[in-house]
């Protein structure tokens, strides 16, 4: 376990260094010297105020999505669950879209706050539902319904948008990106992922018991209702913070837990933090590849992860179907 964590940390450091050092502007030896010796120089501005916060935002957002995916897969006992399966991403996106169309984007932090409110509303509805219905299948169905409603509401916002500029801004935001992010964005998402990590750690014994079956979990003596609540809060907070800062980015929360699950022997409790690190690593690398892809316009990060993640999703679904048949 420790070797896995340290290996992921070293890979993240290597990816972060590459992300900060590589970009459209190729720096020469003299520019590198200026970047480290003159904070007011142009190269220093590019490295520490443009690339570094972008890399850190990608790392934190990816970690949030990876953690949320691991929690959802453990809570629902479903290898195909991800942060969007319960509608939290869609509700957060709806909140942000409404704020943009209403003109609130001119106020710093308004869009992020609206996204967090949307995610919080979704989390509250899920908590109320799970308090009455314990079945994971029912929770999934409720989440799908919530996601469908939020998607329809977002489409309605597009339809009624009074300005084509606002519509374009909403579309750009929904595609997902960490471009032009600052240290303020890093400060937005970091406390959320830390609090989510604490809640997930509290819920870990419950997730471990759920992997043995609902009946075993019920007779384990653990406060399963409270642990389920902690798991839902962790997933909702992490997903909401990620969507608030970077828009909708898919497949990271689905894939990250699968990359590390076999290395922790499938333990839902031990997979949480490696999944967060794997998610952060995935998004840093994906953002670097999106930046370096030779296109007239930079690929949106959400588009890039979808292009890569869709085949992976199909592979996971195929493997899961084989296991279910066996």
Give the number of domains. 1
Query: Structural class, please?
Result: mainly alpha
CATH class: Mainly Alpha
Largest sheet: number of strands, sense, barrel closure: none
Shape: globular
Rg, Cα atoms, Å: 20 Å
The arrangement of helices and strands along the chain is HHHHHHHHHHHHH
Beta strands, count: 0
Topology of this protein?
Blueprint: H1 2-21, H2 29-37, H3 42-76, H4 88-101, H5 110-132, H6 136-160, H7 164-174, H8 183-210, H9 214-218, H10 224-246, H11 252-260, H12 272-292, H13 301-325
Helix pairs in contact: 1-3, 1-12, 2-3, 3-8, 3-10, 3-11, 3-12, 4-5, 4-6, 4-7, 4-10, 5-6, 5-10, 8-10, 11-12
Explain the overall architecture.
The protein has 326 residues and is mostly helical. It has one domain (2-6, 35-325): ABC transporter involved in vitamin B12 uptake, BtuC. The chain contains 13 helices and no strands. The longest helix is centred in the first third of the chain and has 35 residues, at 42-76.
Write a brief caption for the model.
The chain has 13 helices and no strands.
Q: What attributes characterize this protein structure?
A:
326 residues, globular, mainly alpha, ABC transporter involved in vitamin B12 uptake, BtuC
């Amino acid at each position: 376990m420790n070797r896995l964590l340290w290996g992921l940390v070293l890979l993240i450091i290597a990816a972060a260094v590459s992300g900060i050092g590589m970009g459209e502007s190729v720096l020469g030896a003299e520019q590198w010297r200026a970047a480290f010796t003159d904070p007011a120089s142009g190269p220093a501005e590019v490295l520490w105020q443009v690339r570094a916060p972008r890399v850190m935002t990608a790392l934190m957002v990816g970690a949030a999505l990876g953690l949320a995916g691991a929690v959802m897969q453990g809570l629902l006992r479903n290898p195909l669950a991800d942060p969007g399966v319960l509608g939290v991403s869609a509700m957060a996106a709806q909140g942000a879209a409404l704020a943009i169309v209403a003109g609130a984007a001119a106020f710093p932090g308004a869009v992020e706050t609206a996204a967090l409110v949307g995610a919080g509303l979704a989390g509250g509805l899920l908590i109320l539902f799970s308090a009455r219905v314990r079945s994971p299948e029912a929770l999934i169905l409720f989440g799908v319904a919530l996601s469908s409603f939020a998607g329809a509401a977002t489409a309605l916002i597009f339809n009624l948008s009074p300005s084509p500029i606002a519509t374009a801004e909403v579309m750009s935001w929904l595609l997902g990106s960490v471009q032009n992010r600052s240290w303020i964005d890093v400060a937005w998402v970091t406390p959320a992922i830390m609090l989510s990590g604490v809640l997930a750690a509290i819920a870990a014994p419950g997730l471990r018991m759920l992997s043995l079956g609902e009946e075993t979990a019920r007779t384990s003596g653990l406060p399963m209702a409270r642990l389920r609540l902690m798991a839902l809060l962790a997933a909702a907070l992490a997903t909401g913070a990620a969507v608030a800062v970077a828009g909708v980015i898919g497949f990271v929360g689905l894939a990250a837990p699968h990359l590390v699950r076999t290395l922790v022997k499938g333990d839902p409790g031990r997979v949480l933090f490696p999944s967060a690190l794997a998610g952060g690593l995935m998004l840093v690398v994906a953002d670097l590849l999106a930046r370096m892809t030779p296109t007239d316009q930079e690929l949106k990060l959400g588009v890039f992860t979808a292009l890569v993640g869709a085949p992976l999703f199909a592979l996971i679904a195929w493997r899961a179907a084989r296991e279910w048949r066996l």
